[in-house]
Backbone:
């Protein structure tokens, strides 16, 4: 059942950037990209193939980096073109103090969040009425998500330079919200090291057309009909994404190297201990009280995680590229991520919406991401997409999520620079 959903996530250190080879002949297009081959599918599109997925209306352009490998925005900027700057250029623009990890400061955020979590639970249990409970569920689900972000920083090593401290704090935070720390940390590392790669990415990566068409109708509907995709994370932990096998709890999964099996076992044991604790509390407090205090906020946390991680890679007004083969590179893949503004939630969830710099340099502590992003913007130029401001709460993101789910269904099986395509039949069926 886990195959119903896409993955949800954010590694430790970036891979070296591969060299980029600019072919002398490129393809420019003026509409949505499609794969290049003749097709008799229900979409009735005639498809062509020239290096990258291309839409109807193809024109050869010589050495023009504004019109490369498929999609071009109305401004003439092509997000799939190799950038005129390097990772070193971005790094040089970021102030040196932004790289400094302060374990005391990191621990102060942990203390803050833990105090708030227990305070909210105490207040809700004291009043115990249906006016307070819904407010509590939203607030506590958000705080569980904040705890996850701090544990996520431990996994990146941006929490501190002390590996043991990172591991202890990461296990405590993630186990408390039923996340296997090492299992998730390792797969998340894979996500960062392969961000933007169609096959190798590990977080909300696109389905290829072949895999998409192999899914039954009910599965397709569930994958792209809200709210079901926003409940994907627990199932992803158990069974990953369509086309991939393995579990974050099983040390023999192909997610992990041989020398990582002990870490995975340790995290699974910690996860199991938390489950046992919840079962014990159910006997002491009653299952209904545990459901109200923990179960429903946990579901809120899952929704936050899936919402935020999905919108880091989808839902921009212009289509963004995904890569394969020689066209993929660590920098180009990272530049397809998106920053999002969450209004009042920014500080609560530790500025995780400041995501582009985080993806390129996950070792930067969360409390320096905003400053580092501001310093790097002149280098990024048009490759940085300014997020729409949200005050006080990010309700506008729900519209972006819904529109993306209606149009971003799969990518072509062929081509090294591809863009999401829409299954019109799925969209029509969802309206019935």
Residues:
């Amino acid at each position: 059942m886990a195959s119903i959903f896409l993955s949800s996530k954010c590694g430790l250190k970036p891979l070296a950037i591969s060299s980029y080879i600019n072919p002398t002949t490129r393809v420019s297009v003026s509409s949505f990209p499609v794969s290049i081959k003749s097709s008799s599918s229900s979409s009735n599109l005639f498809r062509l193939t020239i290096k990258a997925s291309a839409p109807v209306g193809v024109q050869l352009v010589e050495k023009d980096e504004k019109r490369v490998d498929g999609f071009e925005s109305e401004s003439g900027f092509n997000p799939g073109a190799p950038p005129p700057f390097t990772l070193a250029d971005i790094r040089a623009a970021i102030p040196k103090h932004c790289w400094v990890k302060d374990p005391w400061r990191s621990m102060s955020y942990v203390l803050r969040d833990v105090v708030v979590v227990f305070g909210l639970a105490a207040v809700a249990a004291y009043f115990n009425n249906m006016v307070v409970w819904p407010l509590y569920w939203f607030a506590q689900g958000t705080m569980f998500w904040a705890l996850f972000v701090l544990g996520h920083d431990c996994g990146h090593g941006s929490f501190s330079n002390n590996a043991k401290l990172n591991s202890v704090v990461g296990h405590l935070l993630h186990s408390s919200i039923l996340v296997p720390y090492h299992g998730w940390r390792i797969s998340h590392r894979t996500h960062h090291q392969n961000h933007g790669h169609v096959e190798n990415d590990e977080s909300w990566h696109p389905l290829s057309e072949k895999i998409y068409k192999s899914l039954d109708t009910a599965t397709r509907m569930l994958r792209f009909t809200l709210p079901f995709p926003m409940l994907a994370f627990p199932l992803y932990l158990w069974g990953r994404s369509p086309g991939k096998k393995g579990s974050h709890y099983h040390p023999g999964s192909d997610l992990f190297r041989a020398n990582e099996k002990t870490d995975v076992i340790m995290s699974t044991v910690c996860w199991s201990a938390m489950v046992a604790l919840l079962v014990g509390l159910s006997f002491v407090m009653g299952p209904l009280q545990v459901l109200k205090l923990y179960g429903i906020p946990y579901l809120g946390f899952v929704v936050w995680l899936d919402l935020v991680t999905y919108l880091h890679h989808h839902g921009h007004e212009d289509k963004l590229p995904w890569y394969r083969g020689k066209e993929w590179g660590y920098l180009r893949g990272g530049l397809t991520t998106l920053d999002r503004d969450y209004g009042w939630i920014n500080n609560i969830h530790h500025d995780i919406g400041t995501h582009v710099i985080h993806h390129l340099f996950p070792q930067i502590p969360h409390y320096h991401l905003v400053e580092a992003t501001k310093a790097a913007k002149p280098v990024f130029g048009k490759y940085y997409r300014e997020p729409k401001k949200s005050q006080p709460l990010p309700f506008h993101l729900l519209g972006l999520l819904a529109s993306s789910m209606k149009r971003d269904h799969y990518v072509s099986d062929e081509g090294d620079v591809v863009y999401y395509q829409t299954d019109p039949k799925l969209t029509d069926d969802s309206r019935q």
Notes: The radius of gyration is 22 Å. The CA atoms of residues 340 and 353 lie 5 Å apart. The chain has a mean pLDDT of 85.
